[in-house]
Amino acid sequence: MEYETIIGLEIHAELSTESKMFCGCSASFGGGPNTKTCPVCLGHPGSLPVTNMKAIEYTMMLALALNCEITPRSVFHRKNYFYPDMPKNFQISQYDIPLSTDGHLDADMNDYVRKVGITRVHIEEDTGKSIHIGESGRIHGAEYSLEDFNRAGIPLAEIVTEPDIRSAEEARAFMQLLRATLEYLGISDCKMEEGSLRCDANISVAVDGKLGTKVEIKNMNSFRSLFRALSYEEERQRFALEQGGGLIQETRHWDDAEGKTHPLRSKEEAFDYRYFPEPDLVPIEPDPEWVDRLRENLPELPQARFHRFMEQFGLARDIASMLTGEKALADYFERAVETGQGPEELAKWIAGDLSAMLREAVVPIQHCPVAPRGLGELVALVNQKVISGKMAKEVLREAFETGKGPQRIVDEKGLSQIADAHELEVVVDEVIAENPGAADDMRTGKEQALKFMMGQVMKKTRGKANPEVASRLLKQKLIGRE
Amino acid sequence: MKIIEKDALSIAGLIKGREISALEVTRVFLERIDKVEKKVKAYINVAAELALSRAKEVDMELADGVEAGVFGGVPIAVKDVLTTRGFPTTCGSKMLEGFVPVYDATVVERIGRAGTVMLGKANMDEFAMGSSTENSYFGPTMNPWDLERVPGGSSGGSAAAVAAGEAPWALGSDTGGSIRQPAALCGIVGLKPTYGLVSRYGLVAFASSLDQVGPMTRTVRDCAALLGVIAGYDPMDSTSIPGELPDYVGALTGEVKGLKAGVVRELSSEGIDTGVRERFGETVSLLEKLGVACEEVSLPSFAHGLSAYYIIAPAEASSNLARFDGVRYGYRAPGESEDVWEMYDRTRAEGFGGEVKRRIMLGTYALSAGYYDAYYAQAQKIRTLIVRDFGRAWDEYDVLVSPTSPSTAFKLGEKVDDPLTMYLSDICTIPVNLAGIPALSLPCGLSDGLPVGFQVMGPPLEEPKVLNVAYALEQAIGFDARPEL
Fold this sequence. Notes:
By secondary structure, chain A is an alpha+beta fold. Chain A contains 15 helices and 14 strands. Chain A has helices at 53-65, 168-185, 223-242, 288-296, 302-313, 317-324, 327-337, 343-361, 372-383, 389-402, 406-413, 421-434, 436-443, 447-461, 467-478; strands spanning 3-14, 69-70, 76-80, 90-94, 100-108, 113-125, 129-133, 144-148, 155-161, 197-207, 215-220, 250-255, 260-263, 276-277. Chain B is an alpha/beta fold. Chain B has a domain at 3-259 and 438-477: Alpha-Beta Complex (Amidase signature (AS) enzymes), CATH 3.90.1300.10. Chain B has 16 helices and eleven strands. The longest helix of chain B has 24 residues, at 373-396. The radius of gyration of chain B is 21 Å and the shape is globular.
């Protein structure tokens, strides 16, 4: 039997507009509970929604970036269901006439490209946040619940993909690319942990081309949990099928701590939403010229930049992909390239040591203490053989920790390499005189002796000896050849 | 003539001319309320203190030579479906008993800016659902013409207050006839404006695509004047129409010669009481005497208007009223609930009255999966047909006319247990809401001592024409009967 995993994603991205979707309240994150609310987003009797055109513009930009077709006249619908964090007990969303349809986003998987169809991109409002007090931490069995409506009414773009994704890896790669796209467009904070980017998945396993039972997975709050949850679920479903067991269509909740999915109690999931056109709002009819202008003014997107980085800078696929996966990182790289140093070397430093330091210190690249110019300086010092590659790593760490420029660190600490053959010759002679045994070993061709002698030279120069020059001198003096 | 018998514009003139102070006027009306309210019960909450202090403010402004608004010091009653900041707004429901809004409805703000003094919040059918004001949680309002009869509804409190001299004019709201039908039954003027002409911000929604706020007055001139105050674009209401407003009072020339009126067959023959039909026929003759060519016109889609309305309005209501859940404001069922769903169930079971629950159920059903196409989508098609039928009529006629209500005021309790019969009270007024056009009800005489209403309908935004035709008729009819209390 041949198994094939079929995955479709439903993503919600909070848009980083100044104000909420249908009222003037601030849409920013944080603040005391219920401090960013008004009669509209609290659903007070008599209040009415007014569409935030900036949110429409942002969603339109996203739709265009995902190669979607813009609907000439799209409609808001009410999605009716009761939940305490929904002030009106309906959510203003879109239904059968969404803002845009039929796009695609192509995830690079290194040795192949996964083209993922975008069914639709639409706009809706977010709900408030509930905190359920009680043992379960869920609404069922809660002693009481606290509601914070600051998030209620924040604009959300909903992106629904076709079931084109074939593995957990692909799902993660797609989400990373989508996140990067949102970031490049500058329309969302894209923080999965803070919930400004959320993802649900539909996953099934087809057997010999016959479609399987679809299961919806919720509560995946990071790229890592998305990958783990889908891997787990893929395995669970395959196992069930192999055992000849049945699967039921259901919604399952990912428990990150436990590393498992659990069925959700049916009351927490959907019923009949009784969608109908929102009578308080007029349809969205974007001016085609405005849409054209938005299309023309789209910034360079991650995929285009990825290809450009490979072509223009000769970067390897994986490094180009890594750098362009985060706009600020790619910007940093390009500014470093402006120093005139080799792009490949710069890229390696950024992707390697620098990224590791940033991760370790939990500092975003935007606030990196080493400026792009500083990194260029560091690479120049290595290229000019002022410092060794090994020394450079230490200089970078020092620069990262103190914020000082690499040149200044090298100067202050006197770290410049001793590459002057005359200066080094004195040291080499001393080492030979002090270690006659090792010198003899070298003369008789023992390999390890060279390493020992080099170590002694480094010790005497406190690591500043240019290794190539020192090794050449030792060989000349003891073996008579270089 | 006593102050309480005067129209609002006359009172405004007296105050402006310093013949009487705003405070005296307010006192006179509060005394009248004191005297007759036990019999009529037009108000849910009287704002006596608020009104007196507001009236004093107006007097002070006048003394300082400050413009106190076009209708400085003129009292007004406001239907309790409009939010009033700091003053209870109940919608006639236990669900909102004691609820105090944090903001003023746009129309409330506008009448305030015009200097009017709010006397109180007028009684209504719960959440504006009903045609008799018997569905108010706070008890029914009585018709001032016959205290054993209903004032109509849902704006029955507003209509009764004006008819009983408890306010010179009032604001009502009209979703399927809720301004015009009580105006007809109480012998006053009531206008439902074009959908989008008056802001709905702060009007607690019944059926959003049909609701509209409008004036309820003694005279057509007052009606035009109050419309001028409340109409106009509001950025807080997405369905509000932008643009300059015409001079509604200035349009009242009384000159109607050469106009053409269509008498809508579907609204003026079958099912209309004899007495109503007689007064209506006489009024049409009068209209012809004024030089308006009248002929019968058939608008066949209207036969389905009531059915379509009782799908669309409850569907929207079922969603609009979902927010009354006991979580954030209003009534919450006392005692412990097992979980939030039980709290919802108990709160809504206890907080809503029978008619509201009936409509929520009707609407929920109509929107349910598998039924949507058969009910809601079908009703929207009928709505489109009605809009088209009206559109064709406007090619031929300047206005359309019909009786406002098939009967005069009926007895309290007569129809309250028979919803279908009650729903038929709105048969003549409903197509107007479905099409979003303006329509006015004018008193055109009495039948067995009870007022009869004459409905004038016009094309979208043609309020000046509708008002002028009504004005010409008003002068010709000379209706000056008053209920005795």
